[in-house]
Amino acid sequence: MFKNYLKIAWRNLLKSKAYSSINIIGLATGMAVAILIGLWIWDELSFDHYHNNHNKLAWAMTTQTFNGETDTYPNICVPLEKELRIKYASDFKRLSITWNSTNILAVGDKQISQTGLWAQPDLPEMLTLKMNKGSRSAFNDPSSILLSASVATALFGNEDPTNKTVRVDNKTDMKVAGVYEDLPRNTTLYGTKFLLPWDNKANWWNTQGNAWSNHGCQLIAEVNDGVDFAKVSVKIKKITQEHGYVVSNERISLQPMNNWHLYSEFKNGKQTGGRIQFVWLFGIVGVFVLLLACINFMNLSTARSEKRAKEVGIRKAIGSMRAQLIGQFLSESLLVSFLALLFAIILVQLSISFFNGIADKNMSIPWSTPLFWLIILGFTWFTGIISGSYPAFYLSGFQPVKVLKGTFRLGRFAALPRKVLVVVQFTVSITLIIGTIIVYRQVQFAKDRPVGYTREGLISVVMNTPELFGHYDAMRSDLIQTGVVENMAESNSSITQIWSNNSGVQWEGKDPNSDPLFGTIAVTHDFGKTVGWKIAEGRDFSRDFNDTSTFILNESAVKIAGLKNPIGKKMKWLGRDHVITGVINDMVMDSPFKPTIPTIFHLEPSWVRLITIKIKPGIVFREALAKIEPVFKKYNPASPFEFKFIDDEYAQKFSDEERIGNLATFFAILAIFISCLGLFGLASFVAEQRTKEIGIRKVVGASVFNLWQMLSKDFVGLVMLSCFFAIPIAYYFLHVWLQKYEYRAEISWWIFAAAGAGALIITLLTVSFQAIKAAIANPVKSLRTE
Q1: Pairing status of strand 458-462 against strand 610-615
Q2: Residue 277 φ/ψ region, left for φ over 0, alpha for ψ in the -120 to 50 degree band, beta for the rest
Q3: CA–CA gap between residue 583 and residue 511 (Å, rounded)
Q4: Measured between alpha carbons, how far is 584 from 196 in angstroms, rounded to an integer?
Q5: How far is CA 95 from CA 88, 98, 120, 223, in A?
Q6: Which of 269, 588, 670, 719 sits at 20 to 30 Å (Cα–Cα) from 495?
Q7: Is 167 helix (H, G, I), strand (E, B) or coil?
Q8: Which of helix, strand or coil describes residue 626?
Q9: Alpha helix (H) ranges present in 504-608?
């Protein structure tokens, strides 16, 4: 019986090639989108599951309140580790402080710059690193280093690097204790290319063992079996306050590793979401895009029901049961679904590299995983049943007597289900179009925000090795003499980030109950001229004055300090008096979506660790870098010349939002394509169904425009109704999304108008082909009797 069902189904597919093609292409596209989104969701949900102990690992989080804002982040003070290890041994199995660091690794003439971690001996075991060479326990040696497989290959080629020496930052020799497998992209510590021992004397943070106020490291903890993270968080909440650090009402808590990626956003000290919202969002999108494809199948099947009514009538007349007819129609649907699956897998394979690019993933089809095939086949079966259920039950319910007498009519409301489904299709599509526009508008709004300095022509160089220190004036002079450099300066933070924040600043008239947090950036005299900041009041740093005890504040710092006429006022910090000599316009040095951080700039050459260079306008970068590199080689011959473009660093601030926008665009285009494919099929059927009517109208004088208008107006009305539903839905969800940004774009009326107009234009273009084709057909052929 089932074989017979398939044979009939195959014949029906071949008999109606156009409709079959539309169904298969539409379903294949929807299934491909669902598979891609499924792979993306699995990658997100399995983040950090590479580590066998992921259920027991956590970050120690610090919550502080400064400047009226409560922030939570994974930065802690060094003595916290010792306190937890001694006083809470029953709760913690292992602990490791870590500090992210970019270092130059050298073996002979080979030199590479990589990012790794300074860490305590427990970390390799906690992360269950997969060792290719050596062992995790070998990291107990404070003179050892663990390398990732890619770095080991880059430095040693195919040789066994174990027990060989790597020179770090041209000053410290480390013994290779082991090589571990590179961490996959879907791990938080993905970029960790080496591990350096915390107890090595080269690690400056070893000197901060009693500094309860210095928060610059991270602490990863592994709890004992059966320990609850929330209960431990309550125990350790006020540890730092118990040791005298009472500013900011600081609280310590644990964030489980399983939440690092998906639940990374906090507000007022409480977890408020994160990427999990996008997992839900794209999961819903995937379901709806697949639903759109199923709707196409339902629409075309029910639209062509009158053509199959006689078939149903004859089968019922010769004894077919309704259940048998349902089985036949469902078998047709399942055949289409499995044919669509073949095309869907081909589409996924062809597009996955492109999808990985816009999603910043490294996914692949898990061909050898039985679970994947079980899910995919079950999912295809489900899709076939869903897409074929309505046509099966609808067609099998026809009355054979009426059908065979020729008195069967579909009825005035027969087209209503199809219209409802078209409205659902375009409601989803228009909502996605509106979402895409608003995401890109938000990104552009932040990009257009005045940054307060000149990014163009700026590059930065991290001062990793000791050879770069102590040559500021000579190096600056040499760079300017190349003819391609306009200026150069040093600082302890990049112009696109603030690496140092401090409280405890005092000034006359300060509210004794407040202790604002300021970004504190040490710079050299030429920093302002190099980055092009704008002086609002007073003057810039100058060699003509003794500015070693002066401050330059940004406008936000002046505002939070409540200073009127700030020039000449004194501020006390770290036991020293400083005079305010200048105020600059606010610069966007942190998130472009947030208010500017109150910042103090001061001269402290011993604190600097980064060089900023301004290349002259009009100079080709390739030529400029070719002249700049020899200067660095002169002062730092044993290290590679590594630099970053400030423009690129600033652009990275928008990467998450742009990625979401690109994914939304990708899905919106596919949703529109599937919807239009269905419209094209329906328009074709309507034109075919009304062939004689069109012929009569042409004979009595109807123009092509009149006929096009007649055939198009119903579809236009459905799309306009879709706009009516899509606009409030899109407004609600996107308004909520925008609220997480303090610096955000407004939702303008024209966005909805543009999305609706775009949908109408696409609809008219889709329908017009069939409408005009029918309108220009020869009426003689249309009116010819069978």
Answers
A1: antiparallel
A2: alpha
A3: 21
A4: 40
A5: 11, 10, 8, 9
A6: 269
A7: strand
A8: helix
A9: 527-531, 555-561
Whether 608 and 488 have beta carbons less than 8 Å apart is answered as no
| Rounded CA separation 551/578 (Å) | 6
Q: Is 275 helix (H, G, I), strand (E, B) or coil?
A: coil
Q: Render pLDDT for 485-507 as a digit per residue (tens, 0 to 9).
A: 999 999 999 999 998 888 889 99
Tell me phi and psi for residue 295, to 5 degrees: -60, -40
CB count in 10 Å sphere of residue 189:
18
Q: What are phi and psi of 524, to 5 degrees?
A: -100, 170
Closest CA to 5 of 326, 389, 396: 326
Tens digit of each residue's pLDDT (9 = 90 or more) over 722-775: 889 999 999 998 888 888 888 888 888 888 998 888 888 888 887 777 677 766
Q: With beta carbons less than 8 A apart as the criterion, state whether 309 and 398 touch.
A: yes
What is the number of other CB atoms lying within 10 angstroms of the CB of residue 222?
Answer: 21
Mean pLDDT of the chain: 85
Tokens of 336: 């289409």
Q: Closest by alpha carbon to 532, among 642, 651, 613?
A: 613
- Amino acid at position 439, single letter: V
User: Going by DSSP bridges, is the β-strand pair 57-66/131-134 parallel, antiparallel, or unpaired?
Assistant: unpaired
Interatomic CA distance for residues 198 and 585, integer angstroms: 40
Residue 316 has which token pair? 């019922």
Token couple for 771: 């409408």
Q: Which amino acid is at 330?
A: L
Give the Cα separation of 88 and 528 in Å (integer). Answer: 48
Q: Which of 264, 280, 276, 260 is nearest to 187 (CA)?
A: 260
Instruction: Determine the 3-state secondary structure of 159 from DSSP.
Output: coil
CA gap 216, 240 in Å, rounded = 15
Give pLDDT, residue 474: 93
Q: Which residues pair with 77 in a beta bridge?
A: 215
Q: pTM here?
A: 0.83
Strand, helix or coil at 496?
coil
Distance CA 721, CA 731 (A): 16
SS (H, E, C) 451-486: CCCCCCCEEEEECCCHHHCCCHHHHHHHHHHCCCEE
Query: Are 95 and 82 within 8 A, CB to CB?
Result: no
Burial status of residue 617 (CB atoms within 10 A of its CB: 0-12, 13-18, 19 or more): exposed
Distances (CA, A) of 391 to 302, 384, 395, 676: 6, 11, 6, 20
Report the pLDDT averaged over residues 623-646: 90
d(CA 331, CA 343): 19
Q: Determine contact, residues 176/127, Cβ cutoff 8 Å.
A: no
According to the model, what pLDDT value does residue 8 have? 59
Gyration radius of the chain's alpha carbons: 34
Q: What does the alpha-carbon distance between residue 249 and residue 266 come to, in Å, rounded to a whole number?
A: 16
Q: In Å, what is the CA distance from 188 to each residue of 6, 49, 178, 316?
A: 49, 10, 22, 62
For the chain, report the end-to-end CA distance as a whole number of angstroms. 35
Determine how many CB atoms are found less than 10 A away from the CB of residue 498. 18
Torsion on CA atoms 538, 542, 545, 549, rounded to nearest 10: 80
Residue 86 banded pLDDT, cuts 50, 70, 90 = very high
> Angle at the Cα of 402 (from 400 to 404), degrees rounded to 5?
65
pLDDT at 336 over 90: no
- Residue 407 confidence class, pLDDT cut points 50, 70, 90: very low
pLDDT above 90 coverage of the chain, percent: 40
Q: Taking a C-beta distance cutoff of 8 angstroms, is the pair 681, 22 a contact?
A: yes
**How far, in Å, CA of 577 to CA of 585, rounded?**
23
For 100, the 3-state DSSP assignment is strand
Among 281, 371, 338, 292, residue whose Cα is nearest residue 26: 292
